[in-house]
Amino acid sequence: MNGNEQAISTGSARRGPISRFLSPFAVFFRGFLEHPGMVGSIIPSSRVTIDAMLDRVDWKNCKLFVEYGPGVGTFCPHILDRLPPGGQLLVIDTNPRFIEYLRETIDDNRFHAVLGSASDVEKYVSQLGHDNADYVLSGLPFSSLPEDVATSIVEATQRVIRPGGAFLTYQFRPTAKELTEEHFDRVDTGYVWRNVPPCLLVWGWKTGEAAE
Fold first, then answer.
1. What is the DSSP string of 31-88?
2. Alpha-carbon gap, residue 83 to 178, rounded angstroms
3. CA-to-CA distance for 43 and 29, rounded, in angstroms?
4. From CA 69, how far away is CA 92, in angstroms rounded?
5. Bridge partner residues of 135 (DSSP)
């Protein structure tokens, strides 16, 4: 197995020890206990948040959707349901427990899970054979990250998104919004009260027709 195959793994139908014995919430909770600074909330996002976050995506023209910090895949089935047949979903997480769980439970050849840093998104996108991503969604707790790491992730994200694409974040503090405003051409915001806790939604658009 080469380096690319080790970094990027397609979901399969096998069910390993994590998925056999633990519910998604149990895996999520254990991941939170092990890496509390890298998980934004102890409760996965609500369906209202998911729909509000994804409704502005131009799914018909989406070839590559990237998600940072997918956790146990709360957003993943909703993204895959919306993606066209030729589209791909790339998820990146630093928590091996989450990546193993996703690889065991998501059986879709459009799905690719990477154990690594979001700051390396350009490398992972290239390994999949793409020049750019159409959209990047992040649930990373930017307010808990070192400032240089948070800035590096947003800068890499801005570079990898195609013109007309967007950087999507759902957060409980304004840090991601402020970073997005510094690096993207236009920023739209929303708020979801029916989430635990309530969260701020941000769409940072890169200049282009698809952003209109």
1. HHHH-GGG-S-SSPPPHHHHHHHHTTS-GGG-SEEEEE--TTTSSHHHHHHHS-TT-E
2. 29
3. 8
4. 6
5. 65, 166
The model carries a pTM of 0.81
Give the angle 52-112-204 at the CA atoms, nearest 5°: 35
Confidence grade of residue 193 (pLDDT, cut at 50, 70, 90) = confident
Report, as an integer, the average pLDDT of 113-118: 97
| Distance separating alpha carbons of residues 8 and 91, to the nearest angstrom | 9
- pLDDT, tens digit (0-9, with 9 covering 90-100), for 14-40: 444 444 445 555 555 555 555 544 444
- Residue 4 pLDDT greater than 60, yes or no: no
Q: In 3D, which of 212, 189, 180 has the Cα closest to residue 52?
A: 189
Bridge partners of residue 91, in order along the sequence: 67, 113
DSSP 148: H
Q: How far apart are CA 81 and CA 11, in angstroms?
A: 15
Chain-centre distance for alpha carbon 29: 18
**Token pair recorded at residue 177:** 């919004």
Q: What pLDDT score was predicted for residue 162?
A: 97
117's tokens: 């840093």
Q: Tokens in use for 1?
A: 């197995």
Length of the chain: 212
